[in-house]
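Supplementary Methods, section 5.1.

A reviewer requested that the exact input to the structure prediction be made available. We therefore reproduce it here, unchanged from the version used in the analyses.
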Amino acid sequence: MFDIAQQCTQAGNALLAAQLAALRAYAEAMLDGGMLCAERHADVYRTTLATGTVAARQIMWAPVDPVC
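The structure derived from this sequence is encoded token-by-token as follows.
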């Protein structure tokens, strides 16, 4: 039969393992969320850059009306 010290040690080890598993799950979820956010920001940046490029090309190649 186990004495109280051994039971406390086993319970402490089990608690520590459970806490580490939960912490790892939280960290993975946080990193996944961060990656998703970064991907969305990159998509917005690409779209904005493409739209700005199209607008700039239209302005550069627009016919110029003579003022005179």
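The chain has one domain: 3-61. These observations are discussed further in the main text.
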